[in-house]
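During the reporting period the student researcher (J.K.) took over the structure-prediction task from the postdoctoral fellow and processed the backlog of single-chain submissions. One of the processed entries is reproduced below for the supervisory committee.
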Amino acid sequence: MPPATTVADGAVPLAEVVRGDLVESTHLGHLVVLDADDAPRLALGRPDVVIWPRSCVKPVQATVMVRAGLDLPPRLLALAAASHDGTAEHVDGAREILAIAGLDEQALRSTPDVPLDPEAAATWRASGGGPDRITQNCSGKHAAMLLTCQVNGWSLDDYLDPTHPLQQAIAATLRELTGDPDGLPVSTDGCGAPLFSTTLSGLARALGRVAGAPRRDPDSAEATVARAMSAHPRMVAGARREGTRVMQAIPGVVAKDGADGVFAVGLPDGGSIAFKVLDGAGLPRPAIVVAALRAAGYDDPALDPIGRTPVLGGGVEVGSVRALLPADLRSDR
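J.K. obtained the following structure tokens:
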């Protein structure tokens, strides 16, 4: 019997780091760009490789919660789909969601952590704070999960149990929106929530269904989540993060980063992008996502600074990160 395939099998170069006149490192991975009918417009590596999508599935988790009766202002709904920086607006927003449920931070089961953003982390530590559930980047999602459970009369203490009604609904909706088969591996994400694996193409399809919903099904939960995220991109990540910046540059886009080199984008027409950087590095992600958007036909100059990651030597730019994707496939958007 041949050995089982792994995420490394079939990976191809997606980006390289150039320092001076030499390529210093190359980042392998898998990438897929789908059109509005889910047909592949660009496939590099193995588009159906099974991955841990990590936080890229948060728009789907938020969709499940809206379907289950979660009713939040758009700003807070965007936070429910966020891997936030832990700034004051993010932490205060998570507390707002908890307050709506009549709960406090003690109800959270997210893994304690300091803010993702270095400046926010320094401010938090200077005030005497340490690793905390409310500053962990998934606290908005966890607060929204608790509120969803309260609305439905579901138990709160075990809301992260894979057999809990909320987590079962998330698993079923992921299969619905990804089109992936039953039986894919299940684990636990860094925040403590159940983590359901997907194919890379399935992840792209799911984000495309969320982002395309305002046009296709404007009254749906998917459309509600998409509008909230695109209207409040700072709540989804942070001012310097590529996901927020992409959503600011292209109205109607839903962009979500995930740990360990995963990124997914839903496009307003229902098309989508997803990629996995094999070594888990975040460094090449901005260059890759901008190159993938250009391959999908998005030429907005506002993308240029997002995709530019300088390589420094002695504090001076001596190189750059360069995506290794084909030129634009279409220019008729």
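The committee noted the following: The first strand starts at residue 12 and ends at 19.
J.K. will present the remaining backlog at the next meeting.
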